[in-house]
Design brief:
about 210 residues, 8-stranded mixed beta sheet, 6 helices, about 25% strand, globular, Rossmann fold, alpha/beta
Length: about 210
Amino acid sequence: MQIKAFGYRSNIIMGSQWSRDSTYKHATQEGYRSRASYKLLDINSKFGILRPTDNVVDLGCAPGSWLQVLRNLTEGVIVGVDLQPISPLEGVRTIIGDFTDPLIQSEVRRIVDPVSVVICDVSPKLSGKKSYDQARIIDLNEKALEFSQGILKQGGNFVVKTFQGELFNDFLTEVRNNFYSVRVYRTRATRKGSTETYIVAKNYIHRRDDASTD
């Protein structure tokens, strides 16, 4: 099922970037849409972020390789969000739109509740300027974290791709303030020389509104 959300403008480019290297060719031979499939498989094998009945939201899901992996790992509801259209996958619901838009967030909540896991492999279109690119992905990371805070159930998990750099530690601290267990992991499928890394956060601390009442 694919739900189109019109009227949203964004200069964010969502979805993993990949090239036709040997890992990509191996992925296509196994029926995956990109080499990024192996990154999620690796993360889940090492950290066990997904359980067989988990409901999952995939932010920046195009071209759908992580959705393919999710479909084989959980029988729960799977929702993917991206600015780009995604070729249909059986058992997966997709929304075309910007996940930072409140209307898109409301649509996700309408489809799936509660959410056990939020994953985000989103990346901006790279300029080649490391400090600029890192600032842009950290901005996306923070928005993905904010999204997860608004939808994850107590004890839920969050995985996000980021880049190493001067802003990395501040964001890592922010994640640690919201989850009991936080690890930094470089997957085996990550290209040599890349600053790409993943933050794997488990057991969300759901902070209730402690405002006093009469």
